[in-house]
Batch of 4 targets.
Target 1
Amino acid sequence: MALLVQKFGGTSVSSIGCIQAVAEKIAISRSEGHDVVVVVSAMSGETNRLMGLAHEISDQPSSREIDVLLSTGEQVTIALLSIALDEQNCPARSFTGAQVHIRTDSAHNKARIINIDAARVKKALKAGEVVVIAGFQGIDEDGNITTLGRGGSDTTAVAMAAALEADECHIFTDVDGVYTADPRIEPKARRLDVITYEEMLEMASLGSKVLQIRSVEFARKYNVQLRVLSTFKEGDGTLITAEDEGMEQALISGIAHNQDEAKLTIVGVPDQPGVAYRILGPIADANIEVDMIVQNVGVNNTTDFTFTVNRNDYKKALGILKNTASELDASDVTGDDRIVKISVIGIGMRSHAGIASKMFNALSEEGINIKMISTSEIKVSVVVDEKYLELGVRTLHSAFNLEDSVDLGG
Ligand code: ASP
Ligand code: MG
């Protein structure tokens, strides 16, 4: 018998029928003898609907009131699910974030969990009840309702699993696991049985939107065994866990892509100390995040400097860079917002050379020009023209034999 935390996202509880199906699933886990703590999101679309209501009244509604408003979405689901569980003869009790003492800081709309008092949950479990907790919400020191940022129910679930020392944290969603590439782009993509926290963090930050990134960071910190599964389809999903020394590591676990970036170049700036700072300082001051940075070798005492930002910040960054260009007497500013970053990710890469050259070779054979390159311990990323998204992902997926299952269990 295990202690399980099971989280159901918005699409899993999008109608009364879905909520009843979820209740049946939970009742099965109970009948197998497991203790179950459930975390739910708002019904799909509800958080956006509530947000829309606030924006009908004000362009800049108070962040405190937004939290009061948005947290109601999850409160509806915990009550409905608990009623559905009772109907299944599976005694259940719902709790808001405040009721189970999910203490956060006071950063409304993006609060961080500071502490959870698991005693109340443990008491209800002891009484034989399924505990149903509202995701995404907490309470600050002064008793204000806070929320954890969009997708925050994942983080509630993982934090709860950590606080309760649960055996596993199951994230039920509308996909049945983490794939070697986005299946909408590469139909041959394969579901992974296991992936490490590090790899998942790279996948998530590169645009595989299966889990809120913060929940994976949390899981890594507290070593929570995290499993992504489908609400609608049977299966074991993908286990996200720590690296296992004994495990034969696949060289590459997946190909991720990110279409949310744009690149900017300032051409012919003086090749001298302080220039990088003068270029990126004003960008940072405008709260624009920079991802990749490349500076060329200087010729004739000048150099070119290229970086990427989120596409939403492209125009703003271009304006700032044009200012900097005139201050630095640069010869030109160019930009491109029709790019895609494609990355090969794998923890096995640490101990193997040749990944990058294999990657570049595969892309060149398809005539795909690489515009930027960056590497880390467990990934190699390239920026290419957006029109090569599909071709690039599929080429790399097959170059690294990702469609060949190594799982002999079938
Ligand atoms: N309901 C919130 C959202 O839509 C939190 C969540 O779903 O995890 O972002
Ligand atoms: Mg969600």
Target 2
Amino acid sequence: MDKPIGIFDSGLGGLTVLKEVRNVLPFENIVYFGDTKRVPYGSKSKEDIIKYTFEAIDFLISKNVKVIVIACNTATAISLDLAQKKYDIPIIGVIKSGSKSVVSKTKNKVVGVIGTTATINSNSYVENIKELDKSIKVFQKACPLFVPIVEEGFSKTDVAKETAKIYLKDLINKDIDTLVLGCTHYPLLKDSIKYVVGEKINLVDPAKETSITLRDVLIKKNILNKKSKNGICEYFVSDNPEKFSLIAKDLLGIEDIKVFG
Ligand code: DGL
């Protein structure tokens, strides 16, 4: 079926998920929506996050998508269950897949989760990880400054490293062997995070496992695009398409990107 996959994020961070989806499912068409006008979601109320998520889903449905990926951890944590109840279309989030991935990787069963304030306060990662393996100890830390650091293009600077040092100090002292990057922006800070946590701690990006979950859903529902021609991506944002376009080109390594504002 050549109807597109819909991917939604609060802004540009979901491009890290789109990138993985394109690796795993290169022949699929994609419609991406980034709510750049209202980012960040991580510090908003539950009511607002739910409202914005439903609006984004309605928009993607109006674009005739066959499945929706909520790439945003915050929107997944707060709104996924409600969205799955409200809509008939298949909707997947990133937290179940991220949790599956961390459970399969930890050896000492002590793991860390970092995310936005809303994601961490929701306890969603802890619940999903514990559902898979009760014996795993989970330590969490909200890192609200990471998102603006990425948005301002400071990912590879000393500002990022110093901020990571402050945020991650306690987690490192807890002897974690695996750390979930529970926010779409954090994979873009991988180098600075790695610099602080060292080589011994595994970093888990939920995007990889989410793409595999998505492929399984498409196969199960028999809605894979059977054409063996590279899929087309269309990008929609609620504000500032120029900035989004620049970052998207850089992140995806593609010159020809059409962003609709
Ligand atoms: N996309 C959000 C997430 O993954 C991060 C940015 C925000 O706070 O909206 O949690």
Target 3
Amino acid sequence: MVERADLSPDRRAFYERISPLHMAPLWETFHDLITKEPATPCVPCLWNYDQVRPHLLEAGSLITAKEAIRRVLVLENPALPGQSRITSSLYAGLQLVLPGEIAPAHRHSQSALRLIIEGAGAYTSVEGERAYMEKGDFIITGAWSWHDHGNDTGDPVVWLDGLDIPIVRLFDASFAENYREDIYPQSKPPGDNAARFGSNMLPVGYESPGRHSPLFRYPYARSREALEAMRDGQDWDPYHGLKMEFTNPVDGGPAMPTISTFIQLLPKGFTSRPYRATDGTVYTVIEGSGTTEIAGQTLSWTANDVFVVPSWLPHHHRAEDDSVLFLFSDRGIQQKLGLWRERKD
Ligand code: GTQ
């Protein structure tokens, strides 16, 4: 019901009469619904890893990965508390798997990505093949893929999870299933996926069973080497430095239909020009340090920090050191729907 002091008595009475019929006057909400420009409810925010890490490890002493199913601290946009959203359309969280633990096998409609922050040698198993994790590696678990996580190393492993939970929620289209055992049977040797789909070849006659990339591990060592090689060209984009998108080798589109993913190199001393786009974006700092100014607010970041730049807020970066950022957003789905826009201010 519209609560407004300046509402005339006859209009108020009318609104009260139609309310029990589950109707409301559009003219009272029109300008909030159809805004002239994006008006995100989200705010910029940074999670400093050194500050967050002790709490994540404390969660490790409160609950096992198995009991929790997924032991994750959700990164909530401060303007959307309790909604498990870092932007309006995306979810992010930090997941901890301690030595000897497993996170049991399941699958769901939601697409997931992992960006490894700490630890080396733990694994995510995707459809029966283990992807061993190193810092900076980017791993996808496409919609409805069986996956479990495990850590046979002596150290904790932490990664950033990015999922399209709010998108699937928007459509009320969530399904999920647990596997009957904790660990999904290993049917392929580690590396099989990289050989088939990550070697600039595809199996002849290959038809993708899903909409996501069949390649599920994008190793940091390879992405980093590529960025370093391109750097020699000194061909810096004034808005992006050097920015590359991770693609599905089958169609060249985003690695997952609902989540687009990028890696960005900003050389020491580089200041990007002010830029904005309709895709609210989650950044993880893989290497380096710097600042990002977002609509007048400055976030200072260093390795392992996570921060969010909401939709359509003008922003620019300054790298204090050679910096590599991993980004994810809903850009691909917006582009498919004809909604995506950018502005180079
Ligand atoms: O690893 O499967 O952060 O299902 C949230 C939901 C991680 C996962 C999350 C999940 C997962």
Target 4
Amino acid sequence: MIGVFDSGLGGLSVAAKIMEAYPKEQIVYFADNAHVPYGERPLDEIRGFALDITAHLITKGAKTVVMACNMSSAVALEASQNRFPDVPILGVIEPGAKAAIGVAGEAPIGVLATSGTVKSGAYEKSIHKLDSQKKVIQQACPEFVPLVESGRADSEEAEAAARDYVAPLIGEGCRTIILGCTHYPFLRRAIESAAGRDIIIVDPAVETTQTLGKILVEQGMAAYRLDAPHVFSASGDTAGFAALGSIFLGRTIDKVEKITIAHAVETAVKIE
Ligand code: DGL
């Protein structure tokens, strides 16, 4: 069982890639949609949510956990890895940075992300670990997550917001743009049309899925037959998650268990 979580629907863009690449694996997905959007919340609060959710997924039996959320990956990956040293825990930021460096050439790399991820500087740090001279231009996109969560990913508002957010990156000479929030692949059409044909769009989910595959094999954890259906849970609106989630995931989500995050773990996990 692979635990995957996000603040809401966004992580389904990662879950979809994992399901496609490793069809024998069972996924247990948690959407913390009682607290979405994460992007405008204090970073400490998000770290607390992410630790609680990781603990919950491990309690449920996850052999590995994918933080399919850039915010959580930015502020809680190391804390979670320290707290649960026996379970491989992956984020999406390092894979995203690696993928972008691989294609960016000499031009600066643009990052579209939530305000919190921009504030954390996590992409810049990760990119600079690989190339300390690389120019990184970040753009916070506060309108994007609410547009996706309310089912307006394919709207004129989404197109207008994408034009506003992408223009400064193009203006700075970026030829590569990282989708630095897992909700953004669902806005890909609007982002691509704002960016134009010559811009390379990097979805960190692709590299994250490959990294996950390596871990599963190296640690001898890969499933050899699927014997259980995927499990979905949410802390907020379960019916809305099932309806929109089925569209985004491209497969029917017929049951969503409601789990209140405060009750998600038997022993509450607090940040020191
Ligand atoms: N999808 C998440 C991310 O990648 C969180 C977005 C949000 O809730 O603001 O950052």
